[in-house]
């Protein structure tokens, strides 16, 4: 958020603390949503191809959420984004909840993580960030 605030400060000529306060209010009122870098990469993937980004965020009233839902020809593809470099079974908690609600299968559920190995599990697939483009291009991994 620091770099976003510097940009706002440069454009508006306001103090960084003022920009942070404004962004905080705009986020709290759902006028602005600051995208994590991974989501920005997903948006760029589609925009660079001249396509609208079929991306959604989902949250229920209890706070359960899916970081990114991609609309594909075969349905919604759920993605959770984690910064960890090792596989943690907790990464799949939100996906398992989503799958129960939606009827989606673990074979079509993905965790994007900071590791380097593509890892398939009974709960879904952990995908290294380096494989994001391939997942987006194909809608699935081989």
TrEMBL record:
Superkingdom, natural source: Bacteria
Domain DUF4143: 38-84
A Pfam entry, by short name: DUF4143
InterPro entries: DUF4143 (IPR025420)
Protein name as catalogued: DUF4143 domain-containing protein
Species annotation: Nibrella viscosa
